[in-house]
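Quick question, first post here. What does this chain look like in 3D?
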Amino acid sequence: MVPADRPLLSFTGTSATDANKAALPKAFTRPDEHNCAADTTRIYLGELFVNGLDNPEVSWHWAPIVSGAQPAQPTLGQPEFSVAGTLRGVDDSGDDVLADHPFGLDVDADLEPDPGYAFIQFDTRTSTTLHTEVETRIFPRTALGYAPAANDRALMRGVWVLDCGHPPYGAEMHPPTFTAYSRAADAKTTIAAAAVMPYRSTLLFTQDAGAAVALDNTARYGTAKPFALAMVDAVQNAVLLNQDHITTHAMMTANRFDKLDFLVCAPLPKPAGASVDASWRFTARTGVKVIATKLDASGCVRVEASMDATYKPMALTYADAPWSWQALSDSASSQLGQSIDVRQAIIDALKTRGLDASSAPSLQIDHPPRVDAYAALQTRPGADQDSPVQIVTGADDQPYPLYGRVRVSWK
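> Answer (accepted):
Ran it through. Tokens below.
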């Protein structure tokens, strides 16, 4: 049953809140900041230049609040959580650690959760919102013709983490796997857009670029390391082997989901004597089923999506790009709150190990590190349309498990 006071966009019934409860460990009370580090003042990546290469504590930029089943690699198989609420702010990031952002800088959004999802917000800085971040080149906002904005309704599902780059550590959804947004186009009409992102970084790194995109190869994780440790290895390898550039590669994984069930509803109040008019267009890869149903009594469209075992992600082609020493130093300085020259700091750190790396090719100013940098993902043409009614399946020429738009109005 759809509540009479339903918002423009919501998960159907208790499907999402029930799944959240099931994913929480029985003894769970609140996020543990020590999932980031024993010393909760440590800063991801920046600690290497303050506390030394031999003393890293922060393994993960985004430490799982609820880990996967493997204690040594908790970012694998993390449970995902759902949240519904209202956006209070959206912006494009101007600075991110590009080594763990293979699809570029983030679109940042602060979401005020509905009461049933309030547990997901955790910030010792007393914020009332959950910070969410999704990389620009994987987020099809331009193709869908929908740029999220403050006061939009939003639904998200993704990994629930602590951001270990900004002590005191706060909770984030980084990145969301599923996003949906809606707003009233006018007093009688709601528009909405939804998408499932196809990939995310495991936050485990390797020196093998091929292994980074071997999505179905679970054996590749055997020698993988968190970024801090992988970076130290990469620096030493580059210097000792006389390589041209420092580089290490984020192992990517394919996102999957079981079921999604949500409502897109016309604005309230319902005009006297009005009926519902609705249209939608969704596109999905093989193995993903989408059903949309107009609910006349409530003025909503119910969207149900599921993924089965026949789903296979589109292959991801490896690509990289330089990350200039200046940009790297600017990013590290921003995190640390003090100016630092990363290239010189690496040279100095290696010197304490008895290694003079000042003439190493990989540490010259014109030999910047190289980071994974995948091209922007593409939808099919027409992804910004919500009519005529259409659900396209087997769309295996594009990478998104599903994307689509909905329009519902009173007439």
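The longest helix spans residues 227-240.
The chain has a mean pLDDT of 95.
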